[in-house]
Amino acid sequence: MKKLMLTGLFLLLGAFAVFAQNLPSIRIVNNTGHQIFHIFVSPVENEIWGDDFLGTEGILENNQTFTCQLPEPLNKVSMYDVRLVDEEGNSYIKPAVTMTNNARLIFTFDDLDDDQLLF
């Protein structure tokens, strides 16, 4: 019985690992001239941004790249809104981006959301 349970557990973990490998990764390049404290990547149809990919401890320095894994396979969701927030609370947004695996999104000062300008 133990062997059967262990075999089932290993199969489940293996299936999860295969599923996780099918999730696309994207690279976000910070060329805004500012430190980035928050990164949000949300499917276009979502009305909320969701979790911060940098977490509470992360900072993306200017001229650095951050790699993150999208939450859904591309055949399920391929269009995302991406938002970066700098140290002053200003948002840099790329709306409705059609993602590909290993997509490279370069954020510059031109991506600043003028509607949310705080400085």
Describe the structure.
- The protein is an alpha+beta fold and 119 residues long.
- The protein contains one helix and six strands.
- It has a single domain, classed as Sandwich (Immunoglobulin-like).
- 17% of the residues are buried.
Q: What's a concise summary of this model?
A:
The chain is an alpha+beta fold and 119 residues long. It is built from 1 helix and 6 strands; from the N terminus they run H-E-E-E-E-E-E.
Describe the sheet with the most strands. Answer: 3 strands, mixed
> Share of helix among residues?
10-25%
Could you give the distance between the termini?
64 Å
Shape: globular
With strands numbered from the N-terminus, the spatial order across the biggest sheet is 3-1-6
For the record, the CATH architecture stands as Sandwich
**SSE run:** HEEEEEE
CATH class: Mainly Beta
Structural class: alpha+beta
Q: Total helix count?
A: 1
The counted number of beta strands is 6
How many domains? The number is 1
Mean pLDDT: 85
CATH topology name, in short, is Immunoglobulin-like
- The named CATH superfamily: Domain of unknown function DUF5300
Radius of gyration: 18 Å
Uncertain stretches of 5 or more adjacent residues:
3-7, 15-20
Strand percentage = 35-45%
**What is the subunit organization of this protein?**
single chain
